[in-house]
Amino acid sequence: MAAQRTESEEAERAEALTEAEMKALEERYDPEVRFRPLTPPLHWLAAIALFVLSCYHFYTAGYGIPQATTHRGTHLAFTLGLIFLSFLAFGRADEPRSGILRPLGLPWFDWIFAIGGVVSALYVPWIFADLAFRVGDPLPIDVLMGTILIVVLLEATRRAMGWPLPVIALLFIAYAYFGQSMPGVFTHPGASWNNIVNHLYLTSQGIYGTALGVISTYVFHFVLFGVLATRIGLGQLFIDLASSLAGRFAGGPAKVSVLSSAMLGSISGSSIANTVTTGSLTIPAMVRIGYPRHFAAAVEAASSTGGQITPPVMGAVAFLMIEYLGVPLTTILTAALVPAFMHFFGVLVQVHLEARARGLRGLTKEELPVAWSVFKAGWLTTLPLFVLVAILLSGRTPYLAAFWGIASCLLVLVIQNLIRHDLKTAARESVRETWDGFVVGAKYSLSVTAAAALVGIVIGVVTLTGVGFKIAYMVTSVAAGWAQDLSAWWAFLPFEIMTVESLTLLFTLIMTAVVCVLMGCGIPTTANYLIMIAVAAPILSLLGVQPLVAHFFVFYYGVLADITPPVALAAYAAAGIADANAFKAGNTAFRLGMGKALVPFVFAFSPSLLIVVDGFTWSEFFLATGGAMLGIWALSAAFANWLIAPLKGYERVLLVLAAVLLVAPDWTATVIGLVLIAPPLIRQVLMGKTGVQTSS
């Protein structure tokens, strides 16, 4: 038995990616971590600046945040300077070289961008104290500095994230400037460049607005916490616990993928990082027991994208919501619980049915870690998470919770080193690992800060021109027209399927969802959420949708873009690990994530699913929750072509129709859905399991 276990462990070790391969894969699919090599002097300069930035945020989280504009400007200045040190302008990274035009190995134009970004970012909060008195009547120097910052932000975001977000920002700026030339409802008087810069640079409605404030006040701290928590072994503990709990069931590695991604996602805000971290272990195991390679990649990608909707961290969006909605973080986390469960439930049901259809085994006892042994060895790593959650639930500020969570990580790090080494070595290792964690944590925050500041430009143009309400009017008018037409088509029926008002909301939600997914194909979740909430919130509010529901709706569909072809980055990263067809993996991942696609429509029509909403009732909650779970199960069975045995064609059609009706929060629709499920279910139960499905 020992020999068998050793062989199994060695096989897994050979199949798993090395740390260098994981890093290379993450960089390939995630431009936000595609850092360039630096010469030794510049490397140390950048590392010191990154470490100082982390220390600044760690200190202010525990001992008080400075005045808003000062804090945001300081954070932005550090970020812009570091982006031009860390990201190439074009092409692939080569060995750095110094020269007359490359001081310390950095091209002269990068030095100009870096210095211009630092000076222009600090100009508002630090250089001129009387700047507030010039809002509305900026001096030429103010316009010059604002112009420099806008240009630098566009270039910094392009380097860190690619072209889509800068192009969107440029289009919005052009809209503000050329308003008189816009067609139809989009016409507006237009704004001079001075007025545009004044609004975007000197007020809190633009670059220095809420988006940058949330990143610098909350998100940075939780990114740093996630990095440190992973380094002390909390992520590996989650993976090992998931293996011990779910690995023995049919298709065990796939269920381990779902469970471990849910747990790791609770402290990680990146779908791609989550995919690479857990997928390097789970994808080879799934392939080994018989899952097709594209399906193994899809399972990991679909599971990992769920991390961004899983409390308590939820990427950055939970903290943006508390600022925009003015509600406690506990409200956001409570609202996220059931929808997050629905997503993982949907993926889990599909991998289970797929395993049954293919006759796939679970992991053997020899291949599994023992839960008690795993927890006994790694229980200390859970301390920071318990501290973080306890302080969050106590009602204190999120940044104070992050401060104590980070402090707990550092304490665990020291204890671990004291256990492993003598005192002198433990001290040296603790300092080195703290340095590395602080540097990496700050580095991972660079791109999201640039994106948030640039999105401030988009939001500023929306508030300057009022375009959000113009789009709202246009969309709701189109949706209302479609609703009237569809109602006329089924007017002959003796009963009403949906009211015109409900149809109008349905079509509006569909259009909003499509735009969210399309936007998410090119820009990260946080930026997508910020832009869409500026544009979509007025649309949905016109139709009576509660603000909390509207925010969750656009957030969920923005996250869905990570597994929606043609730009399904999480699925492509997983396909790289599985050596699978990327597009096929993306399509399958989208199918596995259908629970995430259905649930937002459920809570849009039945807000009680989010629990903490106005008008919450337990009857509506249980109807929506039960109907959604049954609907996801029926849809999963139709996709997998398996319930208890292979399904007939008409049974799959009935299950799809039943799924649509079951997720509708209406008793009549639910009863009809149950009636449609009955024939295939009864036939399957009567015939029993007649064979193993082997088709892909």
Automatic annotation (TrEMBL):
Residues 149-612 form the TRAP C4-dicarboxylate transport system permease DctM subunit domain. InterPro entries: DctM, TRAP_DctM-Dct_fused. GO terms for cellular component: plasma membrane. The keyword Cell membrane applies. NCBIfam families: TRAP_fused. One of its GO terms (molecular function) is transmembrane transporter activity. The lineage of its organism: Bacteria, Pseudomonadati, Pseudomonadota, Alphaproteobacteria, Rhodobacterales. Keywords: Cell inner membrane, Cell membrane, Membrane, Transmembrane, Transmembrane helix, Transport. The keyword Ligase does not apply. This is Neu5Ac permease. It is found in: Cell inner membrane. It is a multi-pass membrane protein. Part of the tripartite ATP-independent periplasmic (TRAP) transport system. Its main location: membrane. The chain crosses the membrane at residues 42-61, 73-90, 111-133, 139-156, 163-186, 206-229, 324-350, 370-393, 400-419, 444-464, 555-577, 597-616, 622-644, 653-678.
